[in-house]
Specification:
Order of helices and strands: HEHEEHEHEHHHHHHHHHH
Largest sheet: 5 strands, parallel
Number of helices: 14
Distance between the termini: 95 Å
Strand order of the largest sheet: 2-1-3-4-5
Strand content: 5-15%
Number of domains: 3
CATH superfamily of the largest domain: Response regulator
CATH topology of the largest domain: Rossmann fold
Radius of gyration: 29 Å
Helix content: 40-55%
Structural class: alpha/beta
CATH class of the largest domain: Alpha Beta
C-alpha cells in the first residue's frame, strides 16, 4: 500500500522556473508547450531566481543565442542553487556549446524548435528525475565540486555576426527553393523565431523584406534566361517561379522599367543596318515585334 506522501508525489506536477534570456521575450510562448504536464512559473526578472515558498524542481534558462553575460549567469545560478538542475533551451547549437553546458553542470541541453519525439523524451526524463528527488532528501547533500572550462569561442560573436547566423538556414532554403512557393511562417520556424521577429530581423540584416528578397532572386534568374536562352517569355516566367504570366510581366516592368520582351531585345546585338539606332528614338516598338 502506498503512503500518502508517495501518492501526493505521483499526482504532483514538476515545478519549472523559467528565466527569459531571449531578445524577443518569447519564453511565454515556449512555456505553453509544457503547461499541460508541468507547473510553469516565469521568473520576474532575467536574473538569479528569488527564493520562493516552493523550491522549483527545474530551472529552465531560455536563450535565443547565448552571449557571454547569459552563459556567466548559468554558472552563477548553478553556484547559487547547486541542488536544482538546470535545463538550457537555445536556438543556437554548436558541439562546443553543448560540451560546455554539460561540463558546467547543466542537466539538459535542448535545441529549439523542439520536435515531438525530443519533447516526449525530455518530459519522461524530467518525470523520472522528479520522482527520485521527491523520494530522497537530495537537498541535504553537499553540492558537487564545480568543473567548467572557459566560455566557448563560438558565442564570442559580434551582434551583426549573430544576426546573419540566425538567418543562415532561411537564406540557404530560399536559395534552393525560391522558384517554389515559400511560406514565411515556415521559414521563421526553421530559424526558431516568431514570424514577427523573423520579418524584422530579415529586413534589418538584408535591407529589404523577405518577399522583396525572393522577388529579386526570381528576377535575377529571369534576366539570365532572357539574356542567354531562346525560351519564350511565358516559359521563363514559369521557370523563375511566377505562376501567372501577367503578374510576371507587371512585376518585371515595375522592377526594371521595361517588359521582359523589351529587356531581351535591348540586350541583343543591333540588327544589320540598325547600328547606332537608339531604343529611345521611336524604334522600340519595331524591335519589340521582331
Amino acid at each position: 500500500m502506498k503512503s500518502n506522501s508517495a501518492t501526493n508525489n505521483n499526482q504532483r506536477k514538476p515545478v519549472l522556473l523559467w528565466l527569459d534570456l531571449t531578445h524577443d521575450r518569447s519564453t511565454e510562448e515556449l512555456m505553453e508547450q509544457f503547461r499541460l504536464t508541468c507547473d510553469c512559473r516565469l521568473a520576474k526578472e532575467s536574473g538569479l531566481p528569488a527564493r520562493e515558498a516552493q523550491q522549483p524542481d527545474m530551472i529552465c534558462m531560455h536563450f535565443d543565442r547565448p552571449d557571454v553575460l547569459g552563459l556567466n549567469l548559468v554558472l552563477e545560478v548553478k553556484r547559487t542553487a547547486p541542488s536544482i538542475p538546470i535545463t538550457m533551451f537555445t536556438v543556437q547549437h554548436s558541439e562546443e556549446l553543448a560540451v560546455w553546458a554539460m561540463r558546467s553542470g547543466v542537466w539538459e541541453y535542448l535545441v529549439l524548435p523542439l520536435g515531438n519525439q525530443e519533447k516526449s523524451r525530455y518530459l519522461q526524463s524530467l518525470e523520472h528525475l522528479c520522482q527520485l528527488r521527491w523520494q530522497e532528501d537530495i537537498h541535504a547533500k553537499k553540492p558537487q565540486v564545480e568543473h567548467c572550462g572557459s566560455l566557448p569561442d563560438s558565442i564570442r560573436l559580434t551582434k551583426e555576426h549573430q544576426k546573419h547566423h540566425a538567418l543562415q538556414k532561411a537564406i540557404s532554403y530560399i536559395d534552393q527553393h525560391y522558384r517554389e512557393g515559400i511560406d514565411q511562417k515556415d521559414l521563421a520556424q526553421r530559424c526558431g523565431m516568431t514570424p514577427f521577429r523573423f520579418s524584422r530581423l530579415f529586413k534589418e540584416v538584408h535591407g529589404l523584406g523577405f518577399m522583396e528578397y525572393v522577388l529579386r532572386k526570381r528576377m535575377d534568374l529571369a534576366k539570365e534566361l532572357l539574356n542567354n536562352s531562346q525560351m519564350p517569355v511565358t516559359s521563363i516566367g514559369y521557370e523563375a517561379g511566377f505562376k501567372d504570366p501577367s503578374y510576371f510581366a507587371r512585376a518585371f516592368k515595375q522592377c526594371l522599367g521595361c517588359t521582359p520582351s523589351e529587356y531581351r531585345d535591348a540586350s541583343r546585338p543591333p540588327l544589320p543596318g540598325l547600328a547606332g539606332t537608339s531604343l529611345h528614338d521611336g524604334n522600340l516598338g519595331l524591335l519589340a515585334n521582331t
